[in-house]
Design a protein that fits this description.
The chain is an alpha+beta fold. It is built from 15 helices and 33 strands. Strand 9 and strand 10 form a beta hairpin.
């Protein structure tokens, strides 16, 4: 191992002697591979995710990468620009390819320096562009668009005459001048049909809540054949047949697999821990409401194929935004052609949800809604209440979160909602994914949660620091009032027939754990029954995201996703966080086995001088805006 503490986007220098990468806060770091010396070259211009992957100049003197600038100190949004730094002097320059234009995102959009040093390639308006540059990396002419199809992951041929890129699941090769584009015949869509599973598993549940009503049954067997439930029946001693696998949950409570209806896939940033964390906390399904599209597809397919331990993922792509963006996975647009390419890409990658973001104008929201409903058959939403309703979207992804519209907020600056908001959500046609951020403060009522091995062994150090800080003191009276006010609104919406699903916005909150804290807030301060609360994280999100026929309840014919609770949450709700094992798709995942795959945090942090609480703050919010509301 070359370095600890989190290193991302590693790229070797042309001569192979140095490694450029970013640390956890986005600083550009250069490491001399012979001596091991590491130095920080410069900090990012803005936060909200890492800068883009570095690209070395052919002589190894300079590095180019995408960064996000700031236009003022009131709003965090800016342009994804090209930043060039001299590795010897640290002198840096910033270049915008065209006025008011952004590189598409800070993930797989370049810039990539050509081997002959004469040009950079990048993705803008979801198309591939080439721009001539000087030896110092400054623009030496206008950029030229060389494709009219969605493009990602550009790379140069060794002679600088061709570019290879990915387009909606195909590898494409094009000449530098845009001529002769063709598909490269590489089987990147390889799939292998899985053999039908005929194994029979009988789960003996001491208590069972099937998600269909209020009743909790006792001494029940859930019989699973392969992936699906075939029977839910009273337990009879000796009822198992030859060849059945018996799983004992006779001292436990079994509920439908939990959902987190608002997450963002950052699996590589978490060192592979993200999906494991959710399973360990009983989450068997999660919904991405924004992330790098190809990473989402990778996780979705890996989990479905049984190659990755994690909850099933309902995936989307980048946040579809206007010309300025904040988060690294915000997809910037200022033209209709750019939006068209992005939505064609969404269809090709089979999004499960389409999300527009806070600077997307009405015409972008309308186009995204049309594509979601007519081409994909999936829901769509945003942060914007009134504009979303008017343009035919299905939901908002928060009650309170950042937005830039001049109208349409769901709350006042002091956190109150009025009759129109309650009525809009209360009819049931327009829905909300709720994300009670203040629930993190409940750690102060149960500090033992910070010592749980799922925290100390599975969480990255910045989340461990955040959990420990919040567990150190009980929530203040002001925070409790905020919780009470928020959940009172949710209760009124539910009483009016509204549809609410529970999410966490992780990784802005700790994966897995925060879902349980949010459930506690709803039960403790909202006056909701245990069954009402659990439905917000089981049956409701399953229906909302089009999976109600297969998931959300424990009934014959449905997929075998269930969460086992060590205790009885219907008598002591806090027991719900104790999830020794789950079954997802008919396969048992035990917490002890998930924990065994990772080193304890104490070992990982030995000798670590990093201020991880500061890192946590930098990761989650803009340094200028640490006191403000957030939400992704």
């Amino acid at each position: 191992m070359l370095a600890g503490g989190g290193r991302y986007n590693p790229v070797l220098s042309p001569d192979g002697t140095r490694l450029a990468c970013h640390d956890t806060t986005g600083d550009l770091v250069i490491r001399d591979l012979a001596t091991g010396e590491e130095r920080t070259l410069l900090a990012p211009l803005g936060g909200n995710g890492l800068p883009g992957r570095p690209s070395w100049s052919p002589d190894g003197r300079r590095i180019a990468f995408s960064d996000r600038n700031r236009l003022n100190q009131r709003f965090r949004e800016g342009y994804n620009v090209i930043r060039v730094v001299d590795t010897a002097t640290g002198e840096a320059s910033v270049h915008q390819p065209m006025p008011h234009a952004s590189l598409s995102d800070r993930g797989n959009s370049g810039p990539v320096w050509s081997p002959d040093g004469s040009a950079m390639a990048f993705v803008m308006e979801s198309a591939l562009w080439v721009m001539p540059v000087s030896p110092r990396g400054a623009p030496a002419g206008a950029p030229v668009r060389i494709t009219d199809e969605a493009a990602d992951h550009p790379s140069w041929s060794g002679d600088s005459r061709h570019l290879l890129y990915e387009s909606s699941g195909r590898l494409r090769l094009v000449a530098r001048d845009g001529s002769g584009a063709r598909t490269v015949d590489v089987p990147i869509r390889y799939a292998r049909a899985a053999s039908p599973r005929r194994d029979i598993t009988r789960v003996h549940a001491g208590r069972l809540w099937d998600g269909t009503g209020e009743e909790v049954r006792t001494d029940v067997d859930v019989v699973v054949a392969g992936r699906r439930i075939v029977a839910v029946e009273p337990h009879r001693a000796g009822a198992g047949r030859t060849g059945e696998k018996l799983v004992d949950a006779s001292a436990a409570t079994v509920v439908p697999g939990l959902w987190d209806a608002h997450t963002h896939p950052w699996q590589y940033t978490y060192g592979g821990r993200q999906t494991t964390l959710m399973l360990a906390y009983g989450v068997t399904s999660n919904v991405s409401l924004g992330g790098f599209a190809h990473e989402g597809v990778r996780i979705r397919e890996s989990v479905a194929a049984g190659r990755l331990a994690g909850p099933r993922l309902f995936s989307t792509g980048e946040l579809i935004d206007g010309s300025r963006v904040s988060y690294s996975m915000g997809r910037a647009h200022r033209t209709r052609d750019g939006v068209r390419r992005t939505l064609q890409r969404a269809v090709a990658l089979d999004y499960d949800f389409v999300k527009t973001y806070v600077r997307a104008p009405a015409w972008i929201m309308a186009e995204a809604t049309r594509a979601a409903h007519d081409l994909l058959g999936v829901p769509t939403g945003s942060h914007l209440l009134s504009p979303g309703v008017g343009l035919g979207q299905d939901l908002t992804t928060h009650w309170r979160a950042s937005q830039r519209s001049e109208y349409g907020r769901g709350h006042t600056p002091t956190g109150h909602a009025y009759q129109d908001v309650r009525e809009t959500y209360g009819g049931g046609d327009f829905k909300m994914v709720i994300t009670p951020f203040s629930a993190l403060a409940l750690l102060g009522h149960d500090p033992a949660l910070a010592r749980d091995p799922r925290v100390t062994r599975l969480m990255p150090p910045w989340d461990v620091a955040l959990v420990e800080e919040n567990a150190a003191q009980p929530p203040s009276a002001a925070v409790v009032r905020s919780m009470e006010s928020e959940v009172a609104l949710y209760r009124r919406i539910l009483d009016g027939g509204g549809t609410l699903a529970l999410g966490t916005d992780a990784p802005l909150t700790p994966f897995g754990l925060h879902l349980h804290l949010a459930l506690r807030v709803l039960h403790r301060y909202g006056g909701l029954s245990v069954a009402q609360v659990l439905r917000l994280a089981t049956a409701v999100p399953a229906r909302l995201f089009g999976a109600g026929d297969d998931l959300g309840t424990l009934e014959p014919g449905k997929l075998a996703d269930l969460t086992v609770v060590d205790g009885d949450p219907f008598r002591r709700f806090d027991d719900l966080v104790r999830t020794p094992w789950v079954m997802r798709d008919g396969v048992v995942h035990r917490q002890e086995e998930l924990l065994a795959a990772f080193a304890p945090a104490a070992e990982r942090r030995a000798g670590d001088r990093v201020d991880w609480l500061r890192v946590s703050g930098v990761l989650r919010r803009e340094p200028c805006c640490a006191g403000g509301a957030f939400g992704l």
